[in-house]
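Batch job 17 of 40 flagged for manual review because the log was empty.
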Amino acid sequence: MIARDWISLVGIIVGIFAFSSGLWQYMKAQKWKRAEFVANSINEFDSQEEIQNAKLMLDWNSRVIVLHCIGFPDGLEFEFDDDLLCKALKPHTEISGFSDNEVAVRDTFDRFFDYLEKFDHFIESGLVNAIEFKPYLRYWLNLIGNENSGRKRPIVIKAIWKYIDYYGYTGVQKLFCRYGYDIHPN
């Protein structure tokens, strides 16, 4: 080999190294941007009063709650329990009307499910992957997706699944399937 060939070979090796290093830095930056996007999405989710209230209703079986929603800007305070949740989440075709408390619960859960739909859209579009949302959603996915989790009676979980299905929250159903939960009603 002559000197010119050695110089060409060294140039190729340096070029491959520079390209690989640049690619690695790019991939690392993309991973960081995805993590930042997920964290910001979850922070926005958690900062919404309706989401906080939906989480309270999911986490507790009975408690006094104040819901601020359309028609009740000053808040509607009432005793919440799982029986009220089941009644509030009935499809409108199965009940002649809803109380103010039930309307407030429905509005709150609509907002909660709208956000879960958004998360599934982010995953489906390839913007992020399901693994990146899992640490933030694990508890709520298990609580809603596992009728035997012990957090809520199975009848309450099935009422939630029925509501999700009836009102066409297919993105919520897909999101739960991504994490191994089939929440389609039987």
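Reviewer: the log was empty due to a logging misconfiguration, but the result itself is present. Residues 48-178 form one domain. Unflagging and moving on to job 18.
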